[in-house]
C-alpha cells in the first residue's frame, strides 16, 4: 500500500490545502468529536443555527429518543444522535467507584447480585449521544463532482460551498458518502457546514465547539487532534471501555481521513454513519476508461451495422441475426 | 447475501442522501441524450452511404432530443437562471462539468447538421457538422453512465464498470428504433443490424452489472425499478426480434433497391405485403424506443431505492471492511512465515 504512487483522487494526502493551490497554507484544522462525553444538550445545534443564520427546517416529534432533528441537511449542520441500547456487559474493576460514585462493598456470597443479572441480560440500558457534522473529507466527493466550482477547498483544508456560485445542480448530494450536503427546497442551492469559515478567518473557533459545555466537540489543528484522540481512546480502553474506537481518523481510509472525526462507543452504522466510506471519484479513472471503450463500441457497432448489409446484401445470404 | 437481521442502522434512516433529481428530467435526459448521441452516429452512417432520407430524419431527431435534453437539465437545476455557471470551469473530476462541455460542443454540431440537411444549403458545412456530431455523439451517450456512477449511490456506483456499456447499448437501441420508425424500408437494413447488436449488448451488460452488484442487485429486481427493467427487457428483445423478423418476411422481399442489390425474395416475402412489413418495422422501432426509456427510468429508480434503504450502503461496506481485515491478517501471517523461513539462513 505504501508504495502506491501519489494519487490526487484517493489515498494518503498529507496537505490538501497546498494541493488545492494554496501557497503556504495555515495548518489544517478540524473537529474531534468525543462522543463518550457528549450529554446530548444540543448546544452545538443551537449555536450553529444561530451563528450561521440557518432557517428553521421543520418542528416535528419523531419518537427517535430525544432526536427530533433527525439528520444533517441543508439547514442542519450539527445533528445530535440519540441511541438507546443495552450496554455491553462489563465487570467493574476492583475497588472502582460504583455508578453513583460510591465504592461498592463485595456482596455476601449467594445474595442476589443486581449487576450479575444485568450482565446476563446484556448489560444496563445506556444512552449514546453523538454530535454529527460534515466530515470535511481529505478527498471530498462533493467538491470533486461540483461542476461550477462552487465547492472549494479553503486554506484551512476545509470544504465550503460558495452560495453565490452554486446553481443547484444537486450533484454533490448523492456524491457525499455520509449524506451530509443537501439542497434547501425553498432555495434550490446546496448547503452544509462551513466549519465556520468566517470565524476561522477571524481567529475564532467554530460556534459549535465554542458552545459545547463538555468539550465533546474539540476544535484545533488536525495533527494535534489526532494525537489527543489516540491518547483518549487508550485511556478509555485502560478504564475498561473496550468498545471505544476512533472513526474517520485514519489518513489511509477510503476518503483519506476526515477533517472532522469521532470517538464512538459502537459500530458506526449504529450512529447512522457508513462503516467504510470510499470517495466515489477514486474509481473515476476506471469509469472514464470504461465509458471511452463503451463509446468506441457504440461507434464500432454502427460501423458494423452499415457494412453488414453491404456484405450480406450482395450475396443475398444474410439474415439480420446471422452475424451475431 | 448478507442477512438483514445482522444489519444495524440509525432508526432505519438512510446513510446517504438520494439525489433530489426529478426522474422525468434526469432519467429522461439519460434517454434523450442517448437517443441524440447514438442517432448522430446513425445519421452520419446514413449520410455516408447515401441513405439521405434516414440521414435527414436522424439529424432532426438528434437535434430535437438534444434540445429537450438541455431543457430538462436546466429545468432540474435548483437555480435555472444560473445554468451558465456550468461552463464557469472545466473539471475532469466532475462528469457533470465534462457533460456540460460535451453538450456545448455536440449541441451546435447536431443543430448545424439538421439545419443543413433540412434546408439543403451549405452541404460541406453540413457534412462537417454531421461528422463532428458523430464523433462527439458516442461520448454524449456514454458519459451519462459515469454521471450516475460517480456518486455514493450503491446501485449506480457499484456497477460503474458495466453501466457505460448498458447506457451505450441502450442509446444504440433507441437510435436504431427511431430510424426504424422514421426511415423508409429500403434504407433500414443498418438500423435492423444495430438494433440486434444493441439488444444483445444491453442484455449482456445488464446481466454482468447485476452479477457484480451482489445483494444490491435486489434494487434492480424489486419495486418500481424491477417492473421497469423487466418491461425494458421484453420491449427491447421484442423490438429487435420484430425488426429482424420484418426484414425476413416483409421489408427485404420488396428488394433493397440500392445499387441493384438483390433482396432476399423468399416465400415469406411473397406472403407478407409490403405494407405489413413497414408497420411491423415501425412498431418494432417504437418498442425499442420504449425499451430504452424503461431501461433508463428503471436504473434511475434502482439508484433511488438503493440510496433510501441503509442496508445497501451498510452491508456491502461492512463486507468490504471484513474482506480487508482478513486480507491484512493473512498478509501478516505470510510475512511472519517468511521471516521464520529466512531466520536460519
Describe the model:
- The complex is a heterodimer of chains A (324) and B (345).
- By secondary structure, chain A is α+β, with helices and mostly antiparallel strands.
- Chain A has 2 domains: 24-88 and 119-278, 2-Layer Sandwich (Alpha-Beta Plaits), CATH 3.30.70; 280-313.
- Helices cover 27% and strands 15% of the residues of chain A.
- Chain A has 9 helices and 10 strands.
- Chain A has helices at residues 16-19, 43-52, 114-120, 141-145, 172-175, 197-201, 207-211, 222-238, 284-315, and strands spanning 29-34, 78-86, 125-133, 151-153, 159-161, 182-183, 190-191, 217-221, 245-247, 260-264.
- In chain A, strand 4 (151-153) and strand 5 form a beta hairpin.
- Chain B has a single domain, classed as Formate dehydrogenase/DMSO reductase domain (Formate dehydrogenase/DMSO reductase fold, Up-down Bundle), CATH 1.20.1630.10.
- In chain B, 74% of the residues lie in helices and 0% in strands.
- Chain B starts with 22 loop residues before the first helix and ends with a helix.
- The interface between A and B is large, with 85 and 96 residues.
Task: List the keywords.
heterodimer; A: 324 residues; four-stranded mixed beta sheet; two-stranded antiparallel ribbon; disordered C terminus; B: 345 residues; mainly alpha; Formate dehydrogenase/DMSO reductase fold
In a few lines, what is going on in this structure?
With 324 residues, chain A is α+β, with helices and mostly antiparallel strands.
Average residue pLDDT of chain A: 88
| Cα-based radius of gyration of chain A, to the nearest Å | 26 Å
Strand proportion of chain B: under 5%
CATH fold name of chain B, please? Formate dehydrogenase/DMSO reductase fold
Our count of helices of chain A gives: 9
Instruction: Kindly give the count of domains of chain B.
Output: 1
Distance between the termini of chain B: 47 Å
The CATH topology assignment of the largest domain in chain A is Alpha-Beta Plaits
What is the annotated CATH architecture of the largest domain in chain A? 2-Layer Sandwich
| The CATH H-level homologous superfamily of chain B | Formate dehydrogenase/DMSO reductase domain
- CATH class of chain B, named Mainly Alpha
CATH class of the largest domain in chain A: Alpha Beta
Major beta sheet summary of chain B: none
By oligomeric state, this entry counts as heterodimer
Largest sheet of chain A: 4 strands, mixed
How many H/I helices of chain B? 12
* Series of H and E elements of chain B: HHHHHHHHHHHH
Shape of chain A: globular
Gross geometry of chain B: globular
